[in-house]
Amino acid sequence: AAKTEERNTFRFYTPMMHADARKRLLLGADLRQALARDEFYLVYQPSIELRSGRVVAVEALLRWRHPTRGELLPDEFIPLAESLGLIRRIDSWTMQNVREQIRRWDLARLPPLRVAMNVSASTFGHPSFVDDVKQAVQTNGLPAKQLLIEITESAILRLGEDTERTMHALHALGIGVAIDDFGTGYSSLAYLKLSAVDYFKIDRSFVSGLPGEGNDVAIVEAMLAIAKSLGIGTIAEGIETKAQHDFLLRAGCGEGQGYLYARPLAASEIERMLLTPNARPGATRLRLVPPE
Ligand code: C2E
Ligand code: MG
Ligand code: MG
Ligand code: MG
Question: In this protein, which residues make up the domain named EAL (predicted)?
Fold first, then answer.
């Protein structure tokens, strides 16, 4: 019986695996063309100062407008881009576009926003990364303090000792460094060198259990306490409910991002939101922002 089952299993799965590999192959071929065909674009998710309800920053998030499959999210193509060796070029495209967007918002007379961007491990760990960033910032006379580079905790662990040097070099340029998905890397905090870190971004997986899950409450409170004693800023990800907002505000978290306030938006929507404060999503609908 086992043998029959095995054979059936074999027959059942093989075409599936082929289909999957084929799909990836095709997607990879498309991905190689995507930059040249100008199919990437960025959306921006506001980050709210919890105390005031003000939008103080945005995070740039990559989207791929695929010619036949429509909008694809990073989880559907970043790992593939990494395995095909395309990620450095993509991250560099993002950097350039973030830089241009900061300049356009500045020309439109928006209040200066901090703009965060994500980089993959192989980009962050590349020997020329700091020079690339330096050049990108200097070319446009971009205030370095408006830029925040996000690197995941697991990428830091994977990269090892060079990360610390890179973080310090960015820090010396005045560019902010955030540890993204903080708490998910299973790292001992003692191992992480934190002196050049400006923000922890507390991962959504901990925020989602607030305020009911005792475990998440304890972990989040511990992360906030460490951040506070080290003078590191805190940004909670994936805030979806008023109860999560209230908990984080009371626990002393600095900023929050999440669908409660705003989804990732087009640059033009960010502009409208900040130039007409009453149109701010969340603020008006959810009345989180006390009138000033
Ligand atoms: P991340 O940096 O942790 O970004 C947060 C993700 O959570 C985003 O997904 C965002 O849309 C989503 N999110 C925000 N608020 C909520 C919420 O309230 N509820 C829920 N359920 N989700 C929320 P997204 O845009 O799909 O990005 C996924 C990841 O892809 C990012 O995680 C980041 O690591 C990576 N990524 C995004 N853009 C780039 C890029 O330009 N370069 C590289 N290398 N990676 C990128
Ligand atoms: Mg991020
Ligand atoms: Mg994150
Ligand atoms: Mg996350």
Answer: 24-278
Helices 87-107 and 267-275: crossing angle in degrees, nearest 10, is: 30
**How far apart are the CA of 184 and the centre of ligand 3, in A?**
10
Say which ligand is closest to the CA of 238: 1
- In a structure prediction context, what are the per-residue pLDDT tens digits for the chain, which is 292 residues long? 444 444 444 555 566 667 788 888 899 999 999 999 999 999 999 999 999 999 999 999 999 999 999 999 999 999 999 999 999 999 999 999 999 999 999 999 998 999 999 999 999 999 999 999 999 888 878 889 999 999 999 999 888 888 889 999 999 999 999 999 998 887 766 667 788 999 999 999 999 999 999 999 999 999 999 999 999 999 999 999 999 999 999 999 999 999 999 999 999 999 999 988 665 554 434 444 433 3
Residue 6 Cα to ligand 3 midpoint, Å, equals: 41
Alpha helices in 108-212 (DSSP H): 121-124, 129-139, 153-159, 162-172, 204-207
For residue 133, report the distance from its CA to the centre of ligand 3, in Å.
Answer: 21
Whether ligand 1 lies within 6 angstroms of the CB of 91 is answered as yes
Q: Is 41 in the pocket of ligand 1 (CB under 6 A)?
A: no
* CA-123 nearest atom, ligand 1: 44
CB-CB contact of 223 with 234 (8 Å) = yes
Q: Is the pTM of this model over 0.95?
A: no
ipTM exceeds 0.90, yes or no: yes
Any ligand 1 atom below 6 A from CB of 153: no
Return the bridge partners of 58, or none: 46, 115
User: 45 in ligand 1 pocket by Cβ < 6 Å?
Assistant: yes
